[in-house]
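comment on this one:
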Amino acid sequence: MSSSVASPEPHQPRPKATGLHKGEIAPGVAKTDPIIVIDGVTRTFGGLTAVNVDHLEIPRNAITALIGPNGAGKTTLFNLLTSFDKPDSGSWTFEGKSLSGVPAFRAARLGLVRTFQLTKALGLLTVLENMKLGATKQKGEHFWQSLIPGLWRGQERAIEERALTILAKFKLDAKKDDFAASLSGGQRKLLEMARALMVEPTMVMLDEPMAGVNPALTQSLLDHILDLKQEGMTVLFVEHDMHMVRHIADWVVVMAEGQIVAEGPPEDVMKNPAVIDAYLGAHQETDLGVVTGRHPAEEK
């Protein structure tokens, strides 16, 4: 995906994707153009059923939020879809191709990449080195080809140029020679998202991208997530901040006890009394959109 697409001015609301579903909205509703289709996926740990998803479709070129209480099975579902864990039963497809039994690195090569709740930056490598590791099909990774620099130097220069372009977009270019271990929590989140783009993905899955992030970097992360959709990618993210979900998500999926209990546009899901009481809480007073300047505060 190109990293040169211009972003709107900061704090400007961006249009939401619409027309994502077909028929009446209910858990498992069919999507107009799904990129992921999940059927009968289950995962148990001992006597605990962590995931039990009968049917779920993720809409293409949209931002979908996966929400629910702690222990709902959100991260486990992420792990299953990206082949970091194996299900007890069920199947799922990405871009029409079955990913059942496909190892994580092959899923990434197909264009499905993810970040983690706890960042996985390699602390003793520099920021630039972390970025370059994200590129696929590197000739220098093969033993015999690595012995002949002329075979891989051109590609290496192109990879470094792309990495620097993406780092500049994420405002991490000044840190390119710093060890990743020296970055703040928020900067590591940015680095992980930037490194994911080195794969040139079709879909990016973000596991709690705002967790542990300094408020000073919140707006930057929000804008970068919105940029992913603008650049033609599909985004699925786990998040607990419902104000953030309301402002940036096109579609919301609610999990509880491993099952999909509701889905729909955020404004509809947020009004569902059962969802509000059980999963969102009824007394959230601080609106992230107001804090970051994306939306004006309502007069009382």
Summary: Strands lie at 34-45, 48-59, 63-67, 89-94, 97-98, 112-114, 203-207, 234-238, 251-256, 259-264. Residues 1-10, 282-294 have pLDDT under 50 and may be disordered.
